[in-house]
Each structure stands twice: as C-alpha cells, then as structure tokens.
Known about the structure:
Blueprint: H1 9-25, H2 42-74, H3 79-82, H4 86-91, H5 107-123, H6 143-152, H7 167-181, H8 190-193, H9 200-213, H10 220-226
Helix pairs in contact: 2-5, 2-9, 5-6, 5-9, 6-7
Amino acid sequence: MPRETGRLRINHMFNCSKVLGYLQKQKIKISVTRNDVPDGKVDAILSLVWNIILYFQIEGHSIERYTTKTKIESQVVDSNSLRGSTTQLNQIEPAEQPKAPIFKKGTGKKALLLWCQAATTKSLPGSSLGVITNFTTDWINGYAFMFIVHSLRPNLVNLEQDIGDDNKKNLDKAFTLLEEHLNVPRLLEPSDVDVEQPDEKSILTYIACIYRRYPELPNLATMIADEDLIDDQK
C-alpha cells in the first residue's frame, strides 16, 4: 500500500484515508474519520485499534479457519467408489468452490468463548469451576488461565498443588507458563486482571493470541456449526 512520507497534515490525512478505505473494503466497522488520527483524538484512535484487533485477531481468524476447513471437506471424494474406473473419474465435474460463510455479529467472540469452555472443562470435567461464561469476572482468580494451560500441556500444571487462593499468584503462574513454555506473549499482568471488573477487550485479545497458536483444541468449525453462528441471509 503506497503511503505519503511527508510530515504535513495533508500527508497524514492521505495515509489515514488509504488505511480507512482498506478497512472498509474488509467490512470492518469504522467510526473514525481521516481527520481524527492526525488530530490526536484518543478515543477515536483506541476505537479504531480495537476494531482492527477484533477483525484480524478474533473475527477474521475464526472465519479463515472455518472457511479453510469447509473448502477442504468439499473436495473430498470417496476413492473407493471410483477405484478402477477411468470413465467415472473423467465424468466428475469440478466441485463448486464454496463461498466464504457470512457470520452473525459477534461470532468471533462467541467462538473464542466456546473454545475456552471446551479447554477449561477438559481439565475439570463435570466441575462448575471450569465453566467460563464471560471475558471479565470469570478470569479474576486465575483458574481459567491455569485450566487452559493444563488442557494444552497437562504436564505443566498440577491442578491440586499449583492453584491456590491467591489470585495474583495464580495469574502470574499462568502467564509465565504461557510465555515460557507455550510461546504466547505476556500481554497482561496480574494487576490488570485481579480487579473488580477486568477489561474485556484486553482479555479477549490475550485469549485470541493463545487460540491462534493452539486452535486445534477444540475444533472451532464443528462448534460454529453446532451453535448456528452462520448467517444464511444473503
């Protein structure tokens, strides 16, 4: 994407226009103008940054994985039914390339919540401790983060010995394990989460980083289908 390298306001506005135009083509919600960034409007800039994170880290990644799986499944042919028959093979019409599904609003967030629920309940099947219903208060005590680490690498966490009553210690332990053993950047500190009302966007972004590295637990495409998250309205 070409950009202006000048230092004048008009150069900054040109660059902002190019970026905003690209984001609009990606159907990303835009609530700022090309003047807001050069003017240093903090709220507008933060809103823009969050919408970029929401699409490229959360919504877009979930869509990409679902679409890829759908394309692969559509091309699978029963080789047994075609074995030894050149005529049949020649008569096969190319499968129509499936269109990328359109997802209902909030699909990425819902898909991540489903992933968290499956990951945490895997560590404690049948226990209410592993039930995650939001991206705020359910994470304060650090249990959810520890359960996710345990579900990904059971050998790293002893659920009986490593999880205690100290929220900050639980959180610090989980963040350290994620960074040192699972290669997930430490985006948060215990003091960011151990508060009355943690910032949902911060936790969502952190969980999205974990999911991007370990999407195989569980199968997101299956969950999306089961939860009816696809919008059939064209």
